Amino acid sequence: MDFIILFEYIGMFMFAFSGAVVGREEDFDFLGIAILSITTALGGGILRDVIVNSQSPYALSNYLPYIVIALGMTTALKFKKIQDNFWVIALDAIGLAAFTVSAGINAINAGYNCITVIFCCFLSAVGGGIIRDIMVNRKPYVFQKDIYAITSVEGALIIFCLKDVFSNELLILISFVIVFGTRMMCYIKHISLPVFSES
Question: Side-chain half-sphere of 109: how many Cα atoms within 13 Å?
């Protein structure tokens, strides 16, 4: 299996898991949970492919993503109780890093400039979660709490700036570790971006 595709599947699994967790929190039925899992796992990637690629989105032309999503959703449903704790955050951070690096490498291989690489990484990594939150009538998590979306931009810049220094495989690992590490460090240390308030 292609190294980049492997990271795509890791991201799909983790985001399907987080989508199912949100569905459980909102007391959705099984259909609703499945839709949230699919949306979280594939929403950002489909938007990315539609905007920057003339070809059919990968998720709409291959059955394997849906098997991966089903596994992620089933895993989330196996547990009687899932809280927003360290392990849930860690799983989500893995998905964030995986989608960032896979989108970034694909964008580099396509010859995109820095802005487009950042756009691809950002949309792939957080687009599905934003759509999920809107569907359940929540304020998008990535815009109001913790250092989250900005770590995807960080990963994109690392990939673009070091693309001529390291091989794709090493670049993927370096960016993955940094994005995941940054996200988890900010969560543990309670580091957030400033929030605007009129009060």
Answer: 13
